[in-house]
Amino acid sequence: MKKGLAFMLALVLCLTSAAALADTKVSFFTGKIETIDLLNEIIDGFNAANPGIVVEQEYQNDASSIIKVKFASGEIPDVMTTYEQEFVDQGKYLDLGGMNEWWERLIPSMRESCTDLKTGLQYRVCTNVTMAGFFYNKEIYAQLGLTPAVTWDEFVANLTAIKETMPDVTPWFIFGKEAWHLGHLIEFIPHGYLKQSLGTLACKAAMLENDSAKLNFGAADGAMAVFAQNLLDLQANGLINDDVLTATSDNCVEAFVTGKAAMFSNGMWALSGLLEANPAMADQIGFAPYPAYMPDSQPVVLSAEDSGYAISATSANVDAAKAFLSYLFSAENQKKYSEALGSPSAFMDVQAAWAPEAFVAEVAAALSSAENIGFTNEKPAGFSGDDAGRMVQDLLAGTYDAQSFAIAYEKAWNEGF
Predict the structure, then answer these.
(1) pTM for the complete prediction?
(2) Is 385 left (phi over 0), alpha (psi -120 to 50) or beta?
């Protein structure tokens, strides 16, 4: 009996081990901190409903840099939210154009936004529409009789009025410890100017071809140098927070919801954190475009695809990866995702209360009053948004003046190709 019992136990252990070894492991790589907990919940649901498939999420704060290491080392995730044009050109991503069950549900303009300009193919699919601009405290603005600025001079005047009247309030809070955030300032302001002045398709082409005559990054009177000088002037005049280089997004949320910061730049992904920190502030949050800062320019606001997902072209688990994304893209999960993220869904069959009605109206007004721009997906893979953000950190730390910053940016951009 003892020998038989021992044999049975050994057999059970062998079968258990074999079952564990038979599991298909799907690695999911992301840089979106706001969605970690919800995605873990969704992943748990998928794993429970799909015996034999195990999805594992990996988050990295500096995802756009870490993915380069993963591609170089061969440790390539099956599914990823990082997406770079150069990796498209290198064939790193799987063509998802045949996934009609996804595309037929998506807003048509979002499929267009997910289409590679060079090949006309779709290597990623987005789940949300996002906007980015300035979040501002409507109560502070009302007390001071301010309205969102259209020009840079008006913007500086607003910040100055806040500083002079409310010395304990930071006019514009920048959480500069996080390089991606500073990279977004370049994305939305100087790159935003190029997109409106050249036109969206012409700007994309200029970036893909690295047409320096059109991009004009290093010029003394170009968009990059003027942006840098404006930022240095705000810093010198105390119109941004003193701790700009050590401040985090959590610090920004805390300052804003307690009335200690009047405005900050970010996208819709920040909304849920604000409302979680202070639900009573729902009707006090305003949203405005980035003011025009170059001659003959217009205010801009980001209106683009968000939460994009790609599958590795070399994945050994393509079917399992597609199954996971189909589960993630279900209307039920996307309603939860949209409401948790505070961002409209890109799926036409998803009805989500993604924001308070007053804020939705603010966003609609901003979109109708400004030039709508998209993300810069055509930037060189060797020069990521995080890399650009680290250059802005150096600018604010005194490493550059405006002209040397613009020249260094152009050099880094060119070398990134």
Answers:
(1) 0.79
(2) alpha
